[in-house]
Each structure stands twice: as C-alpha cells, then as structure tokens.
Amino acid sequence: MNAKVALHTLGCKLNFSETSTVGKQFLNNGFDIVDYKEKADVYVLNTCTVTENADKECRQYVRKALKENPDAFIIVMGCYAQLRPEEIASIRGVDLILGSNEKFKIFSLVDSFNKKDLACIYTSSHDELNEFGPASSSDADDRTRAFLKIQDGCDYKCSFCTIPLARGKSRSMESNGAVDSLKHLLEQGYKEIILTGVNVGDYGKFIDTDLYTLLLKFNEIEGDFRIRISSIEPNLLTDDILNLTANNNKFCNHFHIPLQSGSEKVLRLMQRRYKLEDYRNLIYKVKEIIPDAGIGVDVITGFPGETKEDFLDTYNFIKELPVSYLHAFTYSERPNTKAINMDGKLDTHEKRERTNMLRILSEKKKFEFHQAMFNKQDEVLFETENHDGFMNGFTSNYIKVRSSYNEKLVNSFNNVKIKKSFGTYCEAEIVTTDKSVDLLAS
To answer: What is the SS3 string spanning the chain?
Structure first.
C-alpha cells in the first residue's frame, strides 16, 4: 500500500498553484494524495503571512493533522515558514520547515519521512530568494480552470507588506516556458487559465519582455480557451493590454485592480505607486474600452493614521466608481514592516466596523453590476459540480451564474442571458451552447 500525503493551502491563488506542484512531486514518488481531514503519513501545509490570522491558522492546521495521526510527518512551507521559521519550530509536532527557495526540494532534502524530535529548518536569506519554481494547478472544479504561475517576488516597498521579504525580488518564467506550460494545461482539458504571481503585471522584468508581449504569444495558441489575469497593479495595466482584451475573446473582460485606500494621505503612508486621480482615470478608461468589464478592488481599512475622514474619503471614492465588487481587508500588524512603527493605530472594533461598511458597499456594487447585465448575453464556462440539480459557472466578466445542471455542458463555453440576481450569483438562461456539444447525443 502506498504512503499517503495530505496537502492544505493558506492564502493566495499563487500558493494553491505551488501546493499542486508539490503534490505532483509526491505522486511521482509513489504517494497517494488524500484529503487533509483524512489520516495521512505526511501532511504538507503551505502558509501565508499577509495577515495575523494566517499565522494562527497555521497552528490550527498542524494540530488538526496531529489529531488525525500523531505519528505523521508534518511539513510547513511557504511565506510564514520563510519569515518566521523559529516560531513554527516551536509548534509541537512540526518536523520540517521549508522556505521560499526550498519548498520544491522536499525529496532532495529528506531521506525519510520518519517523525523527528526536533524540527529541521531549511530557509535561505532574503537576498538569496532568486529561484523561480514554476507551478500550475486546477481550481476546485476539476478540469475546468487552472492557475498558471508566471511571476514571483515583488520589488515594491508598500509599508504594510511582508511579501517582498518572504518572496524576494521580482522574477519571471521565461516566455517559451510559459507558452509550453499553457499548452500543457490545455492538453489536459482545462478551458480557463488564470495567470498568477505576486505582481503579475511586473512579468518580464529583467528578461527583456513584458506581460503584453507574453499575452500576444498566448493569443497565437490555437484552441477553445480563455485567459484571466488574477490581479494587476493599477500602474501596470496598460492601454495595450486593455485593447488586446477588448479585441480578442481569449482574454476575460475582468480585471482585479488593488486600490488599498481612497485617501491620498493614506496612500502616501502605504507607499503606493499612484495617486487617486490616476486610479480614477484608469477605471473609467477600462469601462470606456470594455463597457461590460468586471472590475474588482482590494481595500485595506484601519491603516495606522487613517482617520474617520480618511475612511469616508475611501468609502465615497469607491462609491462613485463603476467597479463591480470589493475585497475589504482589515489592517493587521506584520513584523518587519514600516507600518508597524507608525503612529495613529486604531482599535480592533473600529477597524472591523469600517471593513463591514465596505463589505456592504461591495454587495451593493455587485448587485448594481448584475442589474446592468440583465438580459445581456455573455459566455460562461460551466463547472463540474452538481449543486442539487444546478450548475455554476463564471462569465468572462466574472459574474457567477447558475443554471439547470446538464452534464453535457460541463467544461464548455455557452452563451447565457443574465435574468436575475441573488446577490452572490445570477440566474441565467442558456441561449446557445458550445458547438462541440451535442445535446442530443446519448
């Protein structure tokens, strides 16, 4: 009987891609992959360190693994492991800690997966984080969507962020390798490829290319698929990328564009690379070039020095923008950042109140966006799961839709008409199906 490994990911979609790559290494070495809730011989936890909760979750998932199997070999890797290896080593039951350079080298670092008395730590210094480990993975909906890592690291110096310390400098996959990786995912049957990275828009830096040039190469690949950019900084979303998206159905009409604050003062404290006027102009440009584009926004509330007036500036700034939804985060202090030493810290209750206000605004924005799409047609890629007689999918502009389940329409592109909003998703009527789908076939 093969040994069993269970894997769990905390944090971003980039982490999910990397966890999947590690999982494939275990498969290639004779392991069976099981759910993290099941008993396994080895547990791998890929960590995040963006928020305080991510650190706490790491401890919780180590305890869960040991509850299933007290003799299991526990591996903790990723950003938290890179930044705070000694803290993880103090967690009872952890056997191996792998930093950002080491997480893809498990089988060259470990001779056997036998429980140890003390945790082994393999991490490189911040200055040595220069390797690029390619990664790709499927989403929860098997054989429908996949994540493709094309970039890693970040050269930005946002005062609240530990990612540059955990991930190192910006670096990219060679374009030929990215093209080959995309083709490989398409050969496996995936129809939507989500480009991931720490700073995807920074792709190509130091290798004499850029994201737009890579997208042009992707556009030349034949096949029935589409590409979605996971997130892109406002100063890196160029006119060329917008026009390419507007004129080619291989690229999703959806951009997730971090804002972080609608206060000029707070943006300066955060050391962001744009002014509010730049951001506003970009959003309206997106809607001018791609009228039905879905636009997501990241916002941080309760940053040190953010007054009530600053927060209201943020609220009103976003309220007036034609964006589709928000991801609102409550600021949490992270070690080794400039923000941790700033004055004007807010209490937890006030920060959460502000976050809740933005989440309510997000619901309103999403409903307004849904309403604007009523009776319009868009292309949906349906997922595999059967939800009590219904199936879900996403439009190009990232509206989640629901329709009656039809197995023949799974993992195919179908034109639908948006009919009604239920808040988190829309009811849709199928108008035309993928030409490759024969609904009359037995």
So the answer is: CCCEEEEEECCCHHHHHHHHHHHHHHHHCCCEEECCCCCCCEEEEEECCCCHHHHHHHHHHHHHHHHHCCCCEEEEEEHHHHHCHHHHHCCCCEEEEECCCCCCCHHHHCCCCCCCCCCEEECCCHHHCCCCCCCEEECCCCCCEEEEECEECCCCCCCCCCHHHHHCCCEECCHHHHHHHHHHHHHCCCCEEEEECCCHHHCCCCCCCCHHHHHHHHHCCCCCCEEEECCCCHHHCCHHHHHHHHHCCCECCEEECCCECCCHHHHHHHCCCCCHHHHHHHHHHHHHHCCCCEEEEEEEECCCCCCHHHHHHHHHHHHCCCCCEEEEEECCCCCCCHHHHCCCCCCHHHHHHHHHHHHHHHHHHHHHHHHHHCCCEEEEEECCCCECCEEEEEECCCCEEEEECCHHHCCCEEEEEEEEECCCCEEEEEEECCCCCCCCCC
Per-residue pLDDT tens for 49-68? 876 776 788 889 999 999 99
User: Residue 298 corresponds to which tokens in the numbers above?
Assistant: 């990241």
Find how far residue 417's CA is from the centre of its chain. 28
Q: What is the pTM of this model?
A: 0.90
Q: Could you tell me the two tokens for 170?
A: 């910006």
User: Which pLDDT value is given to residue 441?
Assistant: 37
Confirm if 405 and 365 have CB atoms less than 8 A apart. Answer: no
Residue type, 375: N
Please give the radius of gyration of the chain, using alpha carbons only, rounded to the nearest integer.
Answer: 22
- Tell me the C-alpha to C-alpha distance, in Å, between residue 34 and each of 6, 70, 129, 337: 5, 17, 31, 37
Confirm if 274 and 264 have CB atoms less than 8 A apart.
no
CA 69 vs CA 3, 5, 91, 146, 374: distances in Å = 13, 12, 16, 31, 51
| Rounded Cα distance, 68 and 127, in Å | 38
Compute the distance between CA of residue 91 and CA of residue 119 in angstroms, rounded to an integer.
9
Alpha carbon distance 337, 431 (integer Å): 52
The two structure tokens encoding residue 116: 């140890």
Residue 333 has pLDDT above 80, yes or no: yes
Task: Give pLDDT tens digits for 176-224.
Answer: 999 999 999 999 999 999 999 999 999 999 999 999 999 999 999 999 9
